[in-house]
Batch of 4 targets.
Target 1
Amino acid sequence: MSKIHMVNLILLFMVPSMPKGNIIAEVKTMPRIKKIKNFPCSKCHKNKKRNFQISLPLNSPHNEIVFNHMPSINSCYQCHSKNNIKGLILRDGRKLSLSNSNQLCWQCHGEIKNDWRTGLHGKETGSWLTTKYRYSCIECHEAHSPRPHSMKAEPSIQRPKFGITKQEH
Amino acid sequence: MKNIDNDNSSIPNELKRAQRVEKKTKQVLDTKIERRGFLKMAAAAAAATLPAKEAPAFFDFFKKHYKEMTPAEKKVAIAKLEKKLEKKLGLDINVTNPDPIDNAHFVYGLDLSKCNGSRKCVTACVKENNQGRDPAIQYIKVLEMDIGTMNLEKGDQYYNGIVPKKGKFYMPIQCHQCDNPPCVKSCPVEATWKEKDGIVVIDSEWCIGCRYCMAACPYEARRFNYSEPKIPKKEVNTTQGYLSNRVKPKGVVEKCHFCLHRTREGKLPACQEACPTGARKFGNLNDPKSDVAIIFKKKRIFVLKEELNTSPRFFYYFG
């Protein structure tokens, strides 16, 4: 294959004229609540008055939580509500349900917020014709350690034996 | 004596073989041309002159081109294909042929800064579209390339292991559904054409397997079934589009068709749904609120081999 050109194609592409009766899909945020682990929290958290630090006791079911995010956080309660364990808390004190975690992330990731709201960052599923469902940040970024995981690639096709160099020739 | 005998006979033998090969080649070439001409004349020829016994086999030659079929004729063709596939696969097959949706202008965007080379799209595509597993046919080819380079020739499509690798980026390539498609122009029997939602389709019932289109495609996006595609029975997708993911016979060309049996029903392509990073964006450019329309407006996008004027509907950008 020869070299390729990078061009701003906004001018080159023929953007179709907008006919009447356009299809405009609705976009909703994909509900999150059923996917949250250890839910409902109230199964175990009945005593509301405890104030834990970021280091968990060894026998906690949350031991798998590794905190690797912004450096300025030193308590679970900078995001989780101390008085209401099944809720989140914004930095200005406003309360949020666990399933609305996007708003929590937007506080500090303003640029991504804009990209996410237009579909540029993140992912949409559903129907391009009727309703699309936008993934919450947490679908791809663990709240406590948000760096995207590396993963094992699905196996490649076999490298051809000698002679043929391309899959199709 | 024996030795000389052997020597004498070996030369004519070589010659004979060469002649035989030449004759055979000519024969093959001639039959191809004959059949092509034959197909063109098919409409004019009279089926009635054929012996009754052979009529079903020959009937295929005389059927109409898909584009010229009336809805009723399409129904018959679909029922026929359904029967044929059911017999071949031993499964309950549902053949569909959704028509293009008015006002849909499909485009596909790929965010190269997100793609992590996991090939989840490839696996999903193979399953959805009933591609042969052995030898493996894959519509999507993912190239692993060094960051800072854009030379597709140096891209490695055989990488394996944990991804993304340091210093690499990944570039998936599949059919670009060009608005000016060289493959369509190269087909001698019009077995491949462009539909009004932008998808370039192939009619496997009409394809003669000459592979001119493969030579014409600058993106190497077309695949050829050298043998009958092998698919484990359990993995066969039984919803099969007439012009898309139906199980192919041996000797025809196939390629990505933006999952038209899904997308024309409002769904998203299998590769888009499988992508774990959100690098794949499919949508309707006529919908001003769709992600693809906004990417079009806001991002610097590029297409491969722009100088060839193929006008692809598949574009890349760094998000």
Target 2
Amino acid sequence: MDHPLNLTVDGQEHTLAVDPRTTLLDALRDRLGVMSPKKGCDHGQCGACTVLVDGRRLNSCLALALSHDAAAVTTSDGLATDGELSPLHRAFLEQDAFQCGYCTPGQVCSAAGMLQEAADDAPSVVTEDLEAPVDLTDEEIRERMSGNLCRCGAYVNIVAAVSQAAEESR
Amino acid sequence: MNPFDYIRTTDTADAVAVLTERPDAVFLAGGTNLVDHLKLGVTEPGLVVDINGLDLTDIEVLDDSGLRIGAMVRNSDAAADMRVRRDYPMLSRALLSGASGQLRNAASMGGNLLQRTRCVYFQDTSTPCNKREPGSGCSAIGGYTRYHAILGASQDCVATHPSDMAVALAALDATVVVLGPHGERRIPVDELHRLPGEQPERDTILEHGELITALELPPPRAGRSTYRKIRDRASYAFALVSVAATVDVDDSGPKPVIREAAIALGGVAHKPWRARAAEAVLRGAEPNEKTFLQAADAELAAAEPLEGNRFKVQMARGAITTVLTELTGGPESKLDDTTEDAHE
Ligand SMILES: Cc1cc2nc3c(=O)[nH]c(=O)nc-3n(C[C@H](O)[C@H](O)[C@H](O)COP(=O)(O)OP(=O)(O)OC[C@H]3O[C@@H](n4cnc5c(N)ncnc54)[C@H](O)[C@@H]3O)c2cc1C
Ligand code: SF4
Ligand code: FES
Ligand code: FES
């Protein structure tokens, strides 16, 4: 039986009815035509489906849409304002941080969520002093972005892009 | 995916009552394990009860100065909580070594404890597996066993429990608070998960309908602690072997003596493996390499590795001794995960 679902996606409100089996990723892509998040593995193993839900990065392929009724979802598209790329988007362009681009919307959302986590001083497993403020070294960026795979292997430039965006946001 | 019904509940008693009435119902927390299993056909419930609306998201200091962490606290929030970072760094680091940033934002404390094995045959419904389908056989025995058990396995199942967090909780002597049809009960985390025996389909001693409401940590222990994870890639991979350890050394006498030690191993058994034989060797002994090797060997004497995971015995031996060496290396040794000695 279908259940009602309210979602605000990139600032736009939607009301729809979904079968409980629908994942957030499928609701976005198949039901709402929001194609920014990608389906890579569909099992939480690649990060291509990463979106921000109420500001936190999540794998939308492992979330039931109904669990996120009334949530505000931001995709990589939604990080741009009035057609203007965000500093994070520009950093990806300037650092040549992609090849085919399939993983990129997930990388961008993951980076956006991660930069906020670091700004909130959330530690990572490579943070030496768990109680100290976070210093976003390349090692920290690699660890914090490890949930996003890139089949083209653009990792080196992705780290550079995220590092640039982190510098610019300071 | 098989069709199922869905309800969302905001009341713990109600959540328990619904499951008690419906043998085919399951709880849904972060969904990072359950939704995967729904897709794979590993689990085919008739009803999914969403517990994301339950008011189980607090972290509170207890009267005895321990810490109570609600079952719906997200893994990332627990790891970033300053009290956890300061007083239970081993738990913070175990949580942070699991999965990815995105997954930890979704994963709950209760769901992490009750996540199921990553045995590839368990996840593949086209192969026999006693855990998924009792009596069908175990495809891992004689198959791919790199991630399988070397301790406490049975003829029927050689799977490991994949949680990093649970290994730290075992070393910390945490308590799991559970609400069931007959009220609340409290279970030492070491007694929550079972060894497979002849019933590998049962991961834990929980009965259908029992809801984990919180984890309770005893007051912070004296001494130093850490969590070390060895895996096939640097991040975003399950443990081959992991070690959670706390050691408290008495330096007041002519020779240092180990006052207390608690060790748990991950990646080696069907449950977080509390290394009590190793602890017994350490208690009262002088902290040196010989003691550490004796302790590791005492624990691993019972190891029965499989064709594909013989390396784990040596890996666990090395991990235990390395961690103990670091934890007892004096203040000048480079250590991230120390809780300063709380002894007066
Ligand atoms: C690609 C990938 C990599 C991963 N790597 C790691 C890793 O390296 N280390 C690690 O430890 N974990 C790892 N994980 C697993 C992850 O930590 C778990 O999936 C997560 O912790 C489960 O929590 P959840 O809230 O999402 O649980 P759910 O998926 O919602 O639930 C899991 C199970 O617990 C039950 N349940 C949930 N909450 C309760 C409750 N309060 N009371 C009773 N029953 C409950 C559910 O019914 C279900 O059976 C990984 C997962 C993925 C997908
Ligand atoms: S090890 Fe356990 S989970 Fe894996 S196939 Fe055998 S019975 Fe199934
Ligand atoms: S599609 Fe969601 S993690 Fe791969
Ligand atoms: S740019 Fe092609 S997968 Fe990352």
Target 3
Amino acid sequence: MSVLVYTQNWDGKFKKSSFELVSYASKVADMLNVSVIALSIGAVENDELKKLGNYGAGKILNVNNEQCKILDNQVYTNIISQVALKEKSSVIIISNNNEGKAIAPRLSVSLKAGIGSGVSKLPVNLNPFTVYKRTYSGNAYAQVVINSEIKILTLAQNSFDLFETTNNSVIEDLNISVDSSLLKTEVKDVQKMAGKILLTDADIVVSGGRGMKSPDNWGPIVELAGLLGAATACSRPVSDEGWRSHDEHTGQTGKIIAPNVYIAVGISGATQHLAGISSSKYIVAINSDKDAPIFEAAQYGIVGDAMKVLPKLIEAVKELKK
Amino acid sequence: MKILVCISNVPDTTTKVKFVEADTKFDTTGVQWVINPWDELSLTRALELKDDPSTGVKSVTVAHVGPASSEPTIRKALAIGADDAIRVNTEPSDGYYVASQLAEVIRKEQFDIIMCGIESSDFNGSVTGGMIAEFMNIPSVSAVSGLKIENGKPLLTREIDGGRETVSVPTPFVAIVQKGIAKEPRIAAMRGIMMARTKPVKIYEPMEAQSLTKFIVFEKPRPRAACKYIDAENPGLLIQLLQNEAKVI
Ligand SMILES: Cc1cc2nc3c(=O)[nH]c(=O)nc-3n(C[C@H](O)[C@H](O)[C@H](O)COP(=O)(O)OP(=O)(O)OC[C@H]3O[C@@H](n4cnc5c(N)ncnc54)[C@H](O)[C@@H]3O)c2cc1C
């Protein structure tokens, strides 16, 4: 028996979220009294693989087939499924990010394993196996029983702390053969924006809404974000208007994020917006309307004109950095 | 080319979510039901493709798993412009069960492109599309923010961390769509609403299938600490609080 955790890599590197996953997997494995096996697919150096051991992975499996160069959901599902059966995994843990959402449901059918998607805490019960997840777009949480033999949990990003342990890991290169007819995805073109902090990875996010009035007023938001090492975000109307790019849109129909602090500037706090940010550890609101609903969600608030408040905030952060 | 759009029936996004029967059931009193926002965008994109003769899209069908009470949502999809609809007459007990039913229907009716939303706004499972594809052993592309058809060949844009890719897969396939697939949801015009009344809705009885998960109890998010206000004249205090009290910067 084992807990299997699939850790995605980005150009051969892992991220904090990969280590969160492994930390989570080892806590689940402790509850079940079994070991943690980490699975990496694609080209990753041993030094990098070894890092997974710092968070409790006992065995680290590395699959690097010809067919794994691009993400094909069927190929990846097939590999993880084969490994899970070989390792007799009773729980499989995957990130709830784009790639995880692409693979986990296929894996569920392939292994007839029920999914607890977007979990943010350890299972609340082992018998019956019960997980705690976000529902109604953050307006509620639910306990969900998974009654299949194998269980798949997808972990919400930024929802679990890192736990370091002594590294006793062993790395194994695994040869898994995949029927080449499975590979059907053809990538025609890739566009990457280099150098931007990813919204879903960021610990700090500075976000602007319609209250910023014009795309020309974004300077202070970008400057504040730069000083704080933060990512920038926006509300839906702002991206609909083309003031900011679509990948900054947060909320129910955009990105769902859980940074340590979310600074909402000129955002009213509509339910659909809150749906994307309510898991933030702290919410800061800057809004000229003292009755704006965002203040009900916020722990810190400034009632005032963003264009006057932001420059003073920027000065204060610069002062702090000195 | 035939497109199927899978639609889920969800509470309006502004619903005050409440529970009854010791928090084991969602309180449906006074709730307005709508087409799940992503499914509405999928439908919009499917109709845009059909409107363009060069794509070769001949029909757009919507499919829904749910009891007769969800008929109004299906009619709404027909009013927006879908040609016909399929309803599998059963309670959608979990994603695995719903996907089993949809896969069965798709096998019988044969579609080239199957579109599903990235998640439903009620259970936030993000599972149905991928499961359908695996049940049918066909390709799936997830995080799809664009779909076009060039020279009879579908091309998909999929979001990856920090960028996007253009990909193609052979038909039939499942596209799991998210933001960007269409700009704004199409709304039903009067003519559409009239026509929807006579459009065909085929009812299938469910096949034997299992559910693997069960929601047992709900809870509201814990109320957060009340907002601490900082004087707009002295925002520096906010930075101090974030550093020393919240310890987040
Ligand atoms: C199905 C559906 C899905 C949706 N999904 C999303 C989603 O994912 N994300 C999302 O964001 N929205 C979403 N919406 C839209 C949502 O309902 C709101 O319309 C939107 O969030 C409002 O954006 P906003 O707060 O930027 O603008 P507004 O609501 O216009 O608020 C602007 C705020 O700025 C303040 N302001 C004005 N001037 C200043 C100033 N000088 N200084 C400081 N503050 C100022 C105002 O007091 C106001 O509170 C969705 C809606 C629907 C129906």
Target 4
Amino acid sequence: MTSVLIAVLVLALLGIAYSQGVSRSRLLAGQTRLHSRPQYHGALVALWAVLPLLVLLLVWLLASGMAQDWYIASQLPVEILPGTTEYASAAARLRNIASGFGVAGEAAEWEATAGAALAQFNTVLMLAIVALGAVLGVVGMLYMRSRLTARTRARNHVEAFIKAALIFCSVVAILTTVGIVVSLVTETVRFFTFVSPFEFFFGTVWNPGYSTTSNEASGSYGMLPLLVGTVMISLIAMLVALPVGLMSAIWLTQYANPKLRNAIKPVIEILAGIPTIVYGFFALVTVGPALSGLGDVLGFGINATSALTAGIVMGIMIIPFISSLSDDIIRQVPRTMRDGSLGLGATKAETIRMVIVPAALPGIVGAILLAVSRAIGETMIVVLAAGNAPILRFDPTEPTSTFTVTIVTALTGDADFASPQSLVAFALGLTLFVITLLLNIGALAIVRKYREQYE
Amino acid sequence: MNATNNSGPMGGNRIVPSAPASAASAVSRISAKDVTVHYGEKQAIFGVSMEVPEKSVTAFIGPSGCGKSTFLRCFNRMNDTIEGCKVGGKITIDGEDIYDPSLDVVELRARVGMVFQKPNPFPKSIYDNIAYGPRIHGLVKNKAETDELVESSLKKAGLWKEVHDRLDAPGTGLSGGQQQRLCIARTIATGPEVILMDEPCSALDPIATSIVEDLIHELKEQYTIIIVTHSMQQAARVSQKTAFFHLGKLIEYGETEQIFVNPKEKQTEAYITGRIG
Ligand SMILES: Nc1ncnc2c1ncn2[C@@H]1O[C@H](COP(=O)(O)OP(=O)(O)OP(=O)(O)O)[C@@H](O)[C@H]1O
Ligand SMILES: [Mg+2]
């Protein structure tokens, strides 16, 4: 309700202010040459109308909680002392009554009255804010409109605003990243008060004890088994995806006739749209049993849930990723380069191997590293198909486990959130993040090196 | 690929000119009869016939879009690489039909080299750019031979002095004119008998252009050269014979001097005096 009202207000202000600005500008245009086109004047007036309103709303968003707290304090009986758990729960009950959410048990009479009063307080406050915003908007609009002259540098102001808005959005993105990293790091540091980093990074046994006391870690938290599992599965996935993806891209770009290509490319791209959970049960129900059957025939045991199963299915999942990216990259290799090679009497395959692929290599390497970071971060397939056995071994036919799976198990148990067996998820997450980051930095470095050489 | 190259009917006599060189102007090396080219439904070349003499420079001139590049590409069958392009008629080189189904295109292209309008060095070192062709055709057996061939090709293309101390630098790092000479050197290194050049100087400044023109002058002692050009002056400077195309038809073909001084056709005269195109 409130948000609809605000949205209507903002839109109305925008529209009115814009048309006011434009019409004023047209009027001015009659006398002299304008510095900026009327659209820019309109946009400038609209900005002046809407920005104060938006700033006000932002302030309200931050301050309304405080106002509510203050009002609740005035409503609660004096015997409930601020700072006690009693106080907090009473305040929460009032809030719930006011918002219509309801409370457990009967609301006492004083609670009901206070709740209603709080609801009313909220409504009045909100309406006041909206009204104030509308007034501010109109004032801003009239002010800017009256100040418009033919020489007003509206275009420059609007450009400056757009630039500021873009910077603002980038800052939001950066701050979000920083926030996530900071929270990962702080929780990881907390985890390291239970388990020494040395034990975590170099331990070969993963067997967290589920102790109930949350100030002492029991069991072992060595991440090496998980690292080995992750690397093994990603490696198998890349062994499947890389040749198939790259070759299919080469075939599509260099050999397939255009009609066939246009029919096949979307099909490959659909493969990329299948949710990973579907791949997961495909692995569990089809690939796993098939592999173990194959193992029986060949005379050695392959577990139905194993690194091999998860890796192969993950590889299939990544094929379209590699194929599609390489396709675009190969297509960008200039035709003249290809003609140069063919013109020297090179065959198609020689041209591809010695000219096209090398020319596309930086891009392809970038695509591969992106695919690897995807493989490392993939969760669903591994949860279902790898068997969740965090044991240090290098045999791909045995069940294994990865970082992501272990994070899922660590957080979905009912252990206390502050206990080491939950906190370890952050340490694992941070490690995963650092690995992916290094891969991406590596990809960038490679790409840049080739760029310098060949552009 | 070594085998296909050396055992084919056109294997021998690469860089070294063939024996009856003295009879140059009389021998016609390339002969085209009623050549037509279609791009899908659209016809680009209409029944063109001509005889191109050995060890000389033949220039193709004509307004943009008249089919010079299309016709040039018929001689090394580069049109085969264009989707929907069909070539009709008959083209022979030294009496051999190059559109014969049994002919190996790869070998043909080693014999008939091409230099493109835009310099297109490979993303490899200067050395590897030159060695590319010889290696795939098995013309060199070891490092020493390759070194020698790279050096001689670069020398012929007049690029050796400028790059001899940085053969490992990427070819793409050279200037436009140097790149074009690198592409010419690359073509020479494969040991062709015919060199097709499609506006080789259009991306070059006057100095680089004059270097390439001098080069063409020297190359014609050994190679049969066909050059497409938009510059009448260039055609007059470098060529012995000139062909004028208009709307996919060969309007006039003759001695360069005769074409420029005393054209037989009205259209030719109009073009070279600047009234069409
Ligand atoms: N790949 C292609 N597909 C379809 N039509 C083409 C193709 N290449 C050339 N053509 C057409 O064939 C005709 C001749 O083109 P061509 O490139 O041979 O002209 P040109 O004489 O070389 O022109 P320019 O001097 O501008 O290079 C033109 O009408 C052109 O539109
Ligand atoms: Mg052309």
